[in-house]
Design a protein that fits this description.
With 122 residues, the chain is mainly beta. The chain has one helix and ten strands, in the order ββββββββββα.
Length: 122
């Protein structure tokens, strides 16, 4: 199966549509959590892709390990996104895999280094 690197800078705004869930394999009574070669649980995240002037698409992205800080509506960043064409009998499609899914705000170095404000708390 050939992997196709995806340039995420051309995808526009990316938001979590479905929070991370462990990916399951097998049939009803024999379902198991899918793991990668290193034993990490594979999670899927539904990601909304919104390019300017186009309709919203939702893609499911598989990622090793549980993505932290990702909830529905969170703007996200996809690291090393790849697409794979697949076919099984009469069925076919495109699958997506990323090395990581992180909140877009956590990748901004300016926000990370800004001092916390001391506004009236408790």
């Amino acid at each position: 199966m050939q992997s196709i690197p995806v340039d995420t800078s051309r995808l526009g705004v990316l938001r979590c549509a479905v929070a991370p869930e462990p990916k399951m394999t097998g049939l009803d009574d024999n379902k198991e959590v899918k793991r990668d070669r290193d034993g990490n649980t594979i999670y899927t995240v539904g990601v909304m892709v919104r390019q300017e002037g186009r309709r919203v698409s939702v893609i499911e992205v598989a990622v090793p390990g549980e993505p932290k800080g990702i909830t529905e509506g969170t703007e996200v960043r996809l690291t090393e996104l790849e697409a794979f064409a697949w076919a099984m009998g009469d069925r076919h499609g495109i699958a997506f895999r990323a090395a990581a899914v992180t909140p877009a705000s956590s990748a901004a170095p300016v926000a990370a280094s800004a001092p916390a404000s001391k506004t009236g708390g408790a």
